[in-house]
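Support reply, case 0932

Customer input (verbatim):
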Amino acid sequence: SEVTGRPFSILGLGDVVIPGTFVALMRDVDGDIVEKLSPEFPPTTATATESGGRGEAEVTEAANGPYFQSALTGYGVGLAVTFAVNEVSQSGQ
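Our regenerated output:
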């Protein structure tokens, strides 16, 4: 009998995890660049108690600079192309 639905796994881990890790690293790179270029404007920080936590841990928000935005845009375009090719070829990997 033929299965009429989509397969459970159209994309593999290499399509999601590896590029996602790269995008996250680019966000960290942007945060480091902002910190080094403008030390008078450090990244935004908040204590865990201010954000609803129980401890006094300090949380730093990374900057969404040009490297992060470019990597995220490229990742989105790549996923769109992957989905389009999977739709045209009617097969996963």
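We compared this against your earlier run and they match. Two observations from our side: The first helix runs from residue 13 to 37. The chain has two helices and two strands. Please reopen the case if you see a mismatch on your end.
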